[in-house]
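Progress report, Aim 2. The chain analyzed during this reporting quarter is listed below.
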Amino acid sequence: MEALSFVGSALLVLGGILWAAGAIARGSARSSAEHDLTVRLIPVEHETREVVTEQLRRGNNVRAVSRLRRATGVPLTRARALARSMAGGTVPPANHSESWELLRARRPELVAETERVHEQHGRHGRYAAIRHLRRHLPVGLAAGNQLVRGRDG
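Predicted structure tokens for the chain:
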């Protein structure tokens, strides 16, 4: 009888572990997709895009990532991800207005809700919109601010 109780407890613990692992895997897949979108939203000036694309074509990946870091001010991991997407043929937006339009194309429900929050809060609408955007995308305060400002053109 004791052995049966032990087996039941072990199965219960194993079920809890598997459930937690599934929840973590679903969350990391979602955050990975959000991270990819966030990287795609980083604006890069036209001249920098040309130089980086040429460096990537030549195989100078380290120089390309370094140039992206200096030009955009993003951390190394995001600069690498941006260089990887540019090497794959993705053209980043030129400014924050284009980033906002890209976000509108990719996540229209988030843009609509952010604009609603912006309008709803009146004088403090920009700050509320930035907070709302940061709740739903892994962007920093400065990037969120630039995106919301890019909304106004």
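The CA atoms of residues 14 and 102 lie 43 Å apart. The chain has eight helices and no strands. These observations will guide the mutagenesis work planned for the next reporting period.
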